Amino acid sequence: CAPVRLREDSNLAQAQSAREAALGAQSNWTLKARIAVSNGDDGGSGELEWQQHGDRYDFTVHAPVTGKTWHLHGDAHEAILEGVEAMPLVGTDPAELLRDKVGWIVPLHELTAWVRALRAPQGKAQISYNDHSLPAVLQQSGWTVEYKEYFDTLNPPLPRKVFAAKPPYRVRMVIERWSFDP
Amino acid sequence: ADTARSRMETFSKDLKSVSGSFTQQVFDNANHARDRTSGTLSLQAPRQFRWDTNAPYKQLIVADGERVWIYDPDLEQVTVRNLGTEEAHSPLTILTDLDQLDRQYTTSEQGEHDGYLWLRLKSKDKEPEFEYADLGLDERGLKRMVFLDKLGNRTEIVFSDWQRNKKLSADSFKFVPPKGTDVIGNAEPTSEVFPVKN
Q: Is this prediction's pTM over 0.90?
């Protein structure tokens, strides 16, 4: 693939900060994607609809074949997971609920930024860029996030294919559509 | 009498294999249309099916008689499960395996609407995957399937151009993961062997 600039140099960093400022300000977005999650020997895949309104999130996965759907929603204080057991499951951290009740390891908090090719708020990040000055690989909190494709028709461009890995865990998303409500 | 059940039995009688096209539309519990997909499917007794979604994205589901493979080319991943698991309990498999119908489901006539007679299947599993599956049949056979899941999401499938007992190629129900694809789940065949050809 295209040569990747390994060293982060200043105008790239500036381009990224400008992108982060522009996208960071948009706190209402929705994506529709296919998601595959694995821990190396088990996992699953499905159709994902992810709505974000400020810190309120709504993460619905519809599994193929079984048609099973589960729905994880909440905000900074509360996480509710429905469709996995008869009664809704309530917790405080969505990633923990997903891990304990569905067996999926998904760093939801950081992914909210990573899925838009932005650095997560906490922790140092290392980015190498593609030749459109967009992140090609972002490393943060032990995860390596590869941006294989972008929707360059969007301004600023947003990822279409995101492969995140923290061996043995993997989260892969192919995004079909981004939408932004006012 | 002309009932949904009798139409179902006529359609499935001596049906060793069948292939056709589908469009599938999912509605969430607030009746908003969700993703809409289309593609082709084929089934072969006793437990083999192939569900080839080709729009708006590619996804292939193959049940080879022992395992179910769910392959997402874009995600470069295939999930494989033993056939005994939930993925295998798609109501579709009864088409070429009618005696399974009464073993796995209770059936009830739902009368006529939208031009079809409807048969409701309720799974006998302790924790069924779906509330019910309704099969819509005209005189020539199965045309619609609607299933409702636990959260009230509804999946509506429209079938078309069925071809009955067409000779299907040997590898229609085989799946070999392409190079570089990550295989997730239990890839070894099950210990109990299901008779593939009876």
A: no
